[in-house]
Amino acid sequence: MLSKINSITLVGIEGYEVEVEVEVQGGLPYFAMVGLPDVVVKESKERVKAAIKNSNFLLEPGRIIVNFAPADLKKEGTHLDLAVAVGILCCIGEINYVKTRGCVFIGELSLNGEVRGVRGILPMLLEARGKFKRAFIPYENQFEVSFIDDIEIFPISNLNEVADTINNDLPPQRTYIDNFNKNDIQDLDFNEVKGQKYVKRAIEVAVSGGHNILLIGPPGSGKSMIAQRVPTILPELSLEESVEVTKIYSVAGLLKDKGRLINNPPFRGPHHSVSAASFVGGGSNPMPGEVSLAHNGVLFLDELPEFRRDVLEALRQPIEDGKVTISRVKGKYTYPARFMIIASMNPCPCGYYGYPIKECHCSENQIRGYLNKISGPLLDRLDLHISVEPVSFIELNREKDEESSLKIRERVTKARKIQLERFKDEGIFCNSQMKPKHIKKYCKLDEKASKLLEIAFKNLALTSRGYSKILKISRTIADMDSSEKICEKHIAEAIQYRNMDKRFWR
Ligand SMILES: Nc1ncnc2c1ncn2[C@@H]1O[C@H](COP(=O)(O)OP(=O)(O)OP(=O)(O)O)[C@@H](O)[C@H]1O
Ligand SMILES: [Mg+2]
C-alpha cells in the first residue's frame, strides 16, 4: 500500500511543506529513502524501525520505500522521523490512513518510540497553518507555539499516542499559558546612571532613529554601564517583529521561555574573542549568528578594537543589507540581521589618551595602531560618535533623582511613531534606514540650516556619507522635537555627534 503524509522542513528560518510518500511491500528486507534527504534524515531508517517495533506494532520484514517531495528541496534534520513512521503505520493498517488527511506531523523519534522535541517548531507551524487543519508536534515543543490558534495542535509524547489519537478521534490535550507578557520586568534602569546628560541625550537620539553609536572614553567612565541600559528604553516589538525574532531563536534552539513570544528587543553582547562563524552565522549545519540573534534589537560590541579583523569586516553586509547570506555546498541560507550597533572603546591601549584625568603612557605608534584597528569604512558606519567623560565625585554623590528608563522610553516611542507613519508606504521603519531618495524627500532644510551644514561640510572635511548621516540624524532630532521641518538647531546638534573622528583619528 502507498501512503502520503504531510510534514514541514526548515530552510534558513523558513518552513517549507514536504510530502512523505511511503510504500511498504512484502519481499526481501530493504529500506530506501529518496528525494534529496541529507545524512541525518537517512539515519532515521534505523530509528523509525526500532521505534515502531518497540511501540509493539508488528512490522513484518519487507520492502519499504520512502520518497520526499518536492525532490529539489534539500531535507535536513530529524523532525521528519514522525511523518515517516506514521506513513509506515498507515501502510500496515495500524493507523487509519483516511483520518490522517489534513494533518501534518513533525517530530524526532527515539528508539523506544518516544517523540522528541525539535528546533524550529515555530517557523514550521507558521508555514503549516492555513494549509493543514491539525498538527502533531512533540509535547515538549508545545509552549513555543502556544500563541498559534488557527491550527489544531496535538502535543504528543510517543508513537502509540499518535495512533490512539488518530484512530479514536481523541481531542488534543493542550496546555495553554499566557504567551505575550507585555510587562516583562527588567532590573536595570537609566536612573542608576548619575549625570552624563550629554551621553544620555545622544543615546536617546540614536535609539529614537535606530542609528548606530560609538562610545569612546577612558576606563570606568560608564560606557558599559550605559550600553547595558539601552534595552530598557527601546520601544516594544510589534507582533510582526516579535514573531520574526522568536523564529530566529526557535531555529537556533535558544528559546529560554518556551511559552512566550520574545517581545522585548534582543540585546546581544558577544565577547570580542568571537569567531566570524558564530558572529555572522555558519557551521556545517548553518545556524543564525550573533548578528541575527540581535535582529530587531541591539548588538553591543564592547571593546571594539579587540574584535578580530575578519569579524569587524563581516559586519558590513548586515549593516548595509539588513541580512546575512551564508553559502554552503547544500545551498544558500539567508538570515535577517537588522540591528542597532552600540560599540564602545578606549582611545588607546592604556585608555587615557585625550583625557587629562590621568597621564597616557602609550607611544604615538601604539595609539595609531590601536585606533586604526577600526577601519575608515566601519567608523563611517557608526553614525554617532560620543565621548564619555567620567562623572565627578560630586555628581556621583548627588541625591538628585535621575530620569527613569520608562520616561525616556515614552519619548522614544513617540518619535518612532512619527517615523512609522512617515515611512508606512516606503518599506522602511526608521530614519537610519533612509535611502538617498528618502533623504531627498524627507530631509528638507530651511535656509539657515542649510547654510550651517555647508559651513560644517567644509570645516569638518565631511565625506558624502558623513553628510547624509548628519541629515538623517537631524531628521531624528527634529522628530523628537515634533517638528516637520529641520531647523538650524537640529543640524547643529547632529553635527556635534559627527566631529569626534577629528579629535582622535586625524
Ligand atoms: N555615571 C555613573 N553613575 C553611576 N555609576 C557610574 C557612573 N559611571 C561609572 N559608574 C560606575 O563605574 C563602574 C564602571 O563603569 P563601566 O564598567 O561602565 O566603565 P567602562 O567605561 O565600560 O570602562 P572600561 O573602559 O574599563 O570598560 C560602573 O559599574 C558603575 O558602578
Ligand atoms: Mg567597559
Automatic annotation (TrEMBL):
<dbReference type="GO" id="GO:0005524">
    <property type="term" value="F:ATP binding"/>
</dbReference>
<dbReference type="InterPro" id="IPR004482">
    <property type="entry name" value="Mg_chelat-rel"/>
</dbReference>
<dbReference type="InterPro" id="IPR025158">
    <property type="entry name" value="Mg_chelat-rel_C"/>
</dbReference>
<protein>
    <submittedName>
        <fullName>Competence protein ComM</fullName>
    </submittedName>
</protein>
<comment type="similarity">
    <text>Belongs to the Mg-chelatase subunits D/I family. ComM subfamily.</text>
</comment>
<dbReference type="InterPro" id="IPR045006">
    <property type="entry name" value="CHLI-like"/>
</dbReference>
<dbReference type="Pfam" id="PF13541">
    <property type="entry name" value="ChlI"/>
</dbReference>
<dbReference type="InterPro" id="IPR020568">
    <property type="entry name" value="Ribosomal_Su5_D2-typ_SF"/>
</dbReference>
<dbReference type="InterPro" id="IPR027417">
    <property type="entry name" value="P-loop_NTPase"/>
</dbReference>
<dbReference type="InterPro" id="IPR001208">
    <property type="entry name" value="MCM_dom"/>
</dbReference>
<keyword id="KW-0067">ATP-binding</keyword>
<dbReference type="Pfam" id="PF13335">
    <property type="entry name" value="Mg_chelatase_C"/>
</dbReference>
<dbReference type="InterPro" id="IPR000523">
    <property type="entry name" value="Mg_chelatse_chII-like_cat_dom"/>
</dbReference>
<dbReference type="InterPro" id="IPR014721">
    <property type="entry name" value="Ribsml_uS5_D2-typ_fold_subgr"/>
</dbReference>
<dbReference type="GO" id="GO:0003677">
    <property type="term" value="F:DNA binding"/>
</dbReference>
<feature type="domain" description="AAA+ ATPase">
    <location>
        <begin position="209"/>
        <end position="392"/>
    </location>
</feature>
<dbReference type="Pfam" id="PF01078">
    <property type="entry name" value="Mg_chelatase"/>
</dbReference>
<keyword id="KW-0547">Nucleotide-binding</keyword>
<dbReference type="InterPro" id="IPR003593">
    <property type="entry name" value="AAA+_ATPase"/>
</dbReference>
